[in-house]
């Protein structure tokens, strides 16, 4: 039984996009659409989570992800606590579960967890008190579900329904929690074709089993693609000689204006950020008209608002079915 | 679920007539109609035609302003609000299909004020079914009736509009 869904099929934690039912994925994107409207108003705030407390528990630094989670929680009127654990009491030997118990004793409602170890968010989800939700903000090489959902949301806003689309994910798939979560989210939402483009050394074994097409040659992989999702080359996760050099990586897998001509004429270019300019992406492409990198950042807030408001909804009593509008 | 014999065109006519009188009495020429998703939007559009109101119909999603999120969660199909004109210093005719506890109206008023400070807000509903839990009353109601608390009166639409009753008396 997945830790993410309760027996009624409601989303209690968001750990991974793998195995989430399509209607739930769609519901998250639809809810995000409605929050986008809220964010376009002069009053960019709703009282939905007034009185609730969300803790950003970051065991690995990530200013950008933390900031968008923080802003999303504030737009929902929640109180936000940022805990940067690298500088906190785990260094004094307080163990993780003790720390969670202490935070729960302060009546926190949700933990947003970023950790360098795969499985950390799920471990915390299995050990929190009932009624407390966990949202995975990236764990090791495992998953980064809100990034994948905001990417899917951006694609849907830019290109419409995913069914007819060909989407290419390019770069260091092996070390990328983003790629894994993207593949599950996009296929879960019914994307037409998902390709991964990378050298063999940067592909997980048996990646084809997830339902993607593998291309080692970038030009062939980009042919006719509607969406190109570039990944960040993870210097900090690289061990040994998987790559000859960044220069050679760029010459084979960097996205240039010339390579972009292989794609569909209206293809969009995405990147989870921060961009290594000149390593994965030619700066002219990153800042060019096809790039939707900044829209991804904006959309990230609406998507995180949607996830928070769904996992934190209905904790008081289990709803008996899908929640419908109640006249009154 | 059962159909009701509520005559929607007749209710709409009667709300439109009462609204015209009320707006005249208040010397309001051009109110901004704002419908509450989903039923209220259909009613607002029908009234917009009958009142020959000029400003486009605004729509309001109140899911993010409800008071039962902690117990009931977010409904599955959240719509988007769309208020195409500024409400600042403008008269607003807020429209819903049914008023029951008054909680939706409370949420709608809060949502509305995120778009500016209207000069005044009137509330029009097709059906007032009683059962109020808050001190909120409609200015205009097509009809008033009493239903058992466990029953839900729901407007189905958009074409044709009809009321259904769901759930037995509790």
Overview of this protein structure:
With 328 residues, chain A is of the alpha/beta class. Chain A has two domains: 22-144 and 298-311, Aspartate/ornithine carbamoyltransferase (Rossmann fold, 3-Layer(aba) Sandwich), CATH 3.40.50.1370; 145-292, Rossmann fold (3-Layer(aba) Sandwich), CATH 3.40.50.1370. Chain A is 35% helix and 14% strand. In chain A, strand 5, helix 6 (177-188) and strand 6 form a beta-alpha-beta unit. Chain B has one domain (2-67, 78-162): Rossmann fold. Chain B is 26% helix and 25% strand. The relative contact order of chain B is 0.21. Chains A and B meet through helix 1 of A and helix 3, strand 4, helix 4 and strand 7 of B.
Low-confidence stretches of chain B: none
Largest sheet of chain A: 5 strands, parallel
How many strands, which pairing sense, and closed or not: the largest β-sheet of chain B? 5 strands, parallel
Overall structural domain count of chain A: 2
Regarding quaternary structure, what we see is heterodimer
Q: Output the CATH topology of chain B.
A: Rossmann fold
Assign the CATH class of the largest domain in chain A: Alpha Beta
The CATH H-level homologous superfamily of the largest domain in chain A:
Aspartate/ornithine carbamoyltransferase
Query: Strand order, biggest sheet of chain A?
Result: 7-6-5-8-9
Which descriptors apply to this entry?
heterodimer, A: 328 residues, alpha/beta, Rossmann fold, 2 domains, five-stranded parallel beta sheet, four-stranded parallel beta sheet, disordered C terminus, B: 170 residues, three-stranded antiparallel beta sheet
Topology record:
The complex is a heterodimer of chains A (328) and B (170).
Chain A: H1 22-39, E1 53-58, H2 63-75, E2 79-84, H3 96-105, E3 110-115, H4 120-127, E4 133-139, H5 145-159, E5 166-170, H6 177-188, E6 193-197, E7 213-215, H7 218-222, E8 227-230, H8 246-253, H9 257-260, E9 268-270, H10 283-286, H11 293-311
Parallel strand pairs in A: 1-2, 1-3, 3-4, 5-6, 5-8, 6-7, 8-9
Helix pairs in contact in A: 1-5, 1-11, 2-11, 5-6, 5-11
Chain B: E1 2-3, H1 8-25, E2 32-36, H2 39-51, E3 58-60, H3 69-72, E4 91-99, H4 103-112, E5 120-128, E6 140-144, E7 152-156, E8 162-166
Helix pairs in contact in B: 1-2
